[in-house]
Automatic annotation (TrEMBL):
<dbReference type="InterPro" id="IPR018239">
    <property type="entry name" value="DNA_ligase_AS"/>
</dbReference>
<dbReference type="Pfam" id="PF22745">
    <property type="entry name" value="Nlig-Ia"/>
</dbReference>
<dbReference type="InterPro" id="IPR036420">
    <property type="entry name" value="BRCT_dom_sf"/>
</dbReference>
<dbReference type="InterPro" id="IPR041663">
    <property type="entry name" value="DisA/LigA_HHH"/>
</dbReference>
<dbReference type="InterPro" id="IPR013840">
    <property type="entry name" value="DNAligase_N"/>
</dbReference>
<feature type="binding site">
    <location>
        <begin position="82"/>
        <end position="83"/>
    </location>
    <ligand>
        <name>NAD(+)</name>
    </ligand>
</feature>
<keyword id="KW-0436">Ligase</keyword>
<feature type="binding site">
    <location>
        <position position="429"/>
    </location>
    <ligand>
        <name>Zn(2+)</name>
    </ligand>
</feature>
<feature type="binding site">
    <location>
        <position position="405"/>
    </location>
    <ligand>
        <name>Zn(2+)</name>
    </ligand>
</feature>
<dbReference type="GO" id="GO:0003911">
    <property type="term" value="F:DNA ligase (NAD+) activity"/>
</dbReference>
<feature type="binding site">
    <location>
        <position position="136"/>
    </location>
    <ligand>
        <name>NAD(+)</name>
    </ligand>
</feature>
<keyword id="KW-0479">Metal-binding</keyword>
<dbReference type="InterPro" id="IPR001357">
    <property type="entry name" value="BRCT_dom"/>
</dbReference>
<dbReference type="Pfam" id="PF12826">
    <property type="entry name" value="HHH_2"/>
</dbReference>
<comment type="similarity">
    <text>Belongs to the NAD-dependent DNA ligase family. LigA subfamily.</text>
</comment>
<protein>
    <recommendedName>
        <fullName>DNA ligase</fullName>
        <ecNumber>6.5.1.2</ecNumber>
    </recommendedName>
</protein>
<feature type="binding site">
    <location>
        <position position="408"/>
    </location>
    <ligand>
        <name>Zn(2+)</name>
    </ligand>
</feature>
Length: 683
């Protein structure tokens, strides 16, 4: 079925707007920059051929970013634009022709810089003092993030020597590759989700509300443009040198190019060398050097006509697939991994790449012994994009997906409609047992901050623990000096780690401290299937002690407000397994909290919500949501998660879903704002 140009335009517009939203608002990418740029180009071509179908919200006539509500909105003195981009040298020849035609002379020069992959920023200096920092936003106006930008050490807060009275500098805020790597290592250690790339991280960091967190993230900034009435430089190069003299951080990677040939040389020089720079780069920027020429060429709605960026295509290599291995995740999910003949790509040796799941193997029709294409762009993680079928051996065999768990031998299962295979042996499969320990120590459970997943793995490896309960028998002597192997899942690289003095001490102390963690957290930490944080709180509140819960019948568990059959069955089942009972007895003996503490509410004497059902929704200024729920309970109320006929009050915070609000209005539920709620409890 073919789609009409009109539909194609509509679809591309929608798709690109979706990716732009993710990219600029949520700092996420679902497709590569290359794919995005190709689609944008396709849309541009379609719109040029069928201008009547061009949509109002087309991404082709707007600068991509947006502003947020969290910061002051500030208008730029002159718009902050995007750059035209290309991946082809032929397009640069076209660009050069346009410049020549526009200027009516062959007498011009270019100035080349690297294209730093970060977030554009505008800095305003008044009387030599940094007075304002604003993001590009939608090009006309952006977010004022001055206090966050002030944490960047290479940005001068006050200038010395000579400087114009007021002027603006523009540049790129970025996260150095090294800082990014360390941050991700730290996150891996704490069992937190890994960040995708330095650009998205820099962009997310710049828009954080807490400047002290921003400071800890060690952002940096390169400046590459100088503006203002008082700026009288006649070339871009002079501006760059002036910035250097004023002590701004300018990357020394620029070059003046007298011809397009020299530009090509610059491109070739940096294609590999750029990987050695401290910052991620995704291409180069070519600017007409003379200010007068720039003015003559002017701007389109979205980009300057005197500059263009040439982006390096993500690099590809061809290599042999030596084997497919299978990894078992903490949840039992199986990931097939391509074991490759090592190949050099974008400055690093690639040996492995994820094949995601059986569908992907089928899609690629990839077989052991095949020569495959591997790509790596600015992204950190390599990807297999295809198979070179011309080089396939005549006797190659179709890949048959592994049918039993590589860790414990249990037959794998794949649920209807799911992409991944699973190992169902949750209690006996080593990575899954490790996963349970990791869950137990996680922040919302026992919050044992000094133990990370890597250390847990090491403790299993060295036989120091074989499950949760063993944690509490660990001594300083067990831990101090302990050495273990740490294997990078992607590269297969093995490092030796060791626990030293201070960390051993910290682990022992944080385990000791966790004995004070309240019962509901312990219950949550046990990892009973379907018992999330909220359910754990409800059960703890209702049954008060682990023994009551353990002895409860299915009916008694279902009787708890908002607990359904599925959860009840899982709970009863958990307590019917002897190993689990033994675990609980050992944890009890270790001194963990196995009963609710009586809550006291001295500040609020009255039980104003006695017998009332309350729903809390949205974000609150003076309360954490969990804290608010606790408070309501301490005032006699029942907290429920969905609105129904029996809801008495809805406490509506900011940003709550309109559907919920409407439902409450229709049901005639009494709706309280945060202010009204505060007044009510403080009466
Ligand atoms: N993967 C996705 O889903 C997705 C979605 C939206 C956008 N994108 C990517 O973002 C790009 C569009 O972003 P854009 O409009 O910001 O354009 P751009 O990032 O391609 O180019 C403009 C920006 O380059 C930066 N820059 C870096 N070094 C520079 C230098 N030396 N001189 C001047 N500027 C320099 C500036 O911040 C400037 O704002 C797309 O081309 C695409 O690659 C990707
Ligand atoms: Zn298994």
């Amino acid at each position: 079925m073919s789609t009409s140009p009109q539909e194609k335009i509509a679809n591309l517009t929608k798709e690109l707007n979706h990716h732009s939203y993710l990219y600029y608002q949520e700092n996420k990418s679902e497709i590569s920059d290359f794919e995005f740029d190709q689609k944008l180009k396709q849309l541009e071509e379609l719109e040029a051929a069928y201008p009547e179908f061009k949509l109002e919200d087309s991404p082709t006539h707007r600068v991509g970013g947006t502003i947020t509500k969290n910061f002051n909105t500030v208008y730029h003195k002159s718009r902050m634009l995007s750059l035209g981009n290309t991946y082809s040298k032929d397009d640069l020849i076209e660009f050069d022709k346009r410049v020549m035609k526009g200027l009516g002379t062959e007498d011009y020069e270019y100035f080349c810089e690297l294209k730093f992959d970060g977030v554009a920023i505008s800095l305003l200096y008044e009387q030599g003092v940094l007075s304002q920092a604003v993001t590009r936003g939608d090009g006309e106006k952006g977010d004022e993030v001055t206090s966050n930008v002030k944490t960047i050490r290479t940005i001068p807060l006050r200038l010395n020597g000579d400087y114009p009275e007021t002027f603006e500098v523009r540049g790129e805020v970025f996260m150095p590759k090294k800082v990014f790597k360390a941050l991700n290592e730290e996150r891996a250690k704490n069992g937190e989700a890994l960040l995708a790339n330095p650009r998205n991280t820099a962009s997310g960091t710049l828009k954080m509300q807490d400047s002290s967190v921003v400071a800890s993230r060690k952002l940096d900034c390169y400046l590459y443009s100088l503006l203002g009435d008082a700026i009288t430089t006649s070339t871009h190069e002079e501006s760059i040198h002036l910035l250097e003299r004023m002590n701004f951080n300018v990357s020394p990677t620029y070059a003046r190019c007298k011809s397009l040939e020299e530009v090509f040389e610059y491109i070739n020089t940096w294609e590999q060398k750029r990987h050695e720079l401290p910052v991620e780069t995704d291409g180069i920027v070519i600017k007409v050097n003379s200010t007068a020429h720039q003015e003559e060429l002017g701007f389109t709605a979205k980009t300057p006509r005197w500059a263009i960026s040439y982006k390096y295509k993500s690099e590809a290599a061809e290599t042999r697939l030596n084997n497919i291995t299978y990894q078992v995740g903490r949840t039992g999910a199986i990931t097939p991994v391509a074991e490759l003949e090592p190949v050099l790509l974008a400055g690093t040796t690639v040996k492995r790449a994820s094949l995601h799941n059986a569908n992907e193997i089928e899609r690629l029709d990839i077989r052991i012994g095949d020569y495959v294409f591997v790509e790596k762009g600015g992204e950190i993680i390599p990807k297999i994009t295809g198979v070179n079928h011309d080089r396939r051996a005549a006797d190659s065999k179709e890949t048959i997906y592994q049918n039993s768990c590589p860790e414990c031998g249990t037959p794998l299962v794949r649920k209807e409609g799911e992409a991944n295979h699973y190992c169902p042996n949750a209690d006996g499969c080593p990575p899954q047992v490790m996963g349970r320990v990791e869950h137990f120590i996680s922040r919302n459970a026992m919050d044992i901050a000094h133990l990370g997943p890597k250390t847990i793995e090491g403790l299993f490896q060295t036989g120091k623990i074989s499950g949760i309960a063993d944690l509490y028998s660990l001594t300083f002597e067990d831990l101090n000096g302990l050495k273990f192997e740490d294997k990078d899942e992607l590269t297969g690289e093995v490092k030796i780690r060791s626990i030293k003095d201070k960390s051993a001490q910290n682990i022992v102390e944080s385990l000791e401290a966790s004995k004070q963690i309240p019962f509901e957290s312990v219950l949550f930490g046990l990892g009973i299937r379907y018992v999330g944080r909220t359910v754990a709180e409800k059960l703890a509140e209702h049954f008060k002690t682990i023994d009551n819960l353990r002895n409860a019948s299915m009916e008694e568990v279902i009787a708890v407000h908002e607990i359904g059959e599925r959860i009840a069955e899982s709970v009863v089942n958990f307590f019917s397994i002897p190993e689990n009972i033994e675990l609980i007895e050992r944890l009890k003996a270790a001194g963990l909290q196995m009963r609710m503490e009586e809550t006291q509410t001295p500040e609020y004497q009255t039980q104003i919500f006695q017998g009332k059902t309350v729903v809390v929704s949205g974000v609150f200024e003076s309360f954490e949501r969990e804290e608010l729920k606790k408070l309501i309970k301490s005032l006699g109320g029942k907290v429920s998660s969905s609105i129904s006929g029996s809801t008495d009050f809805l406490i509506a915070g900011a940003n709550m879903g309109p559907a919920k609000l409407e439902k409450a209005q229709n049901l005639g539920t009494q709706i309280l704002s945060e202010k009204e709620f505060s007044e009510m409890i403080n009466q």
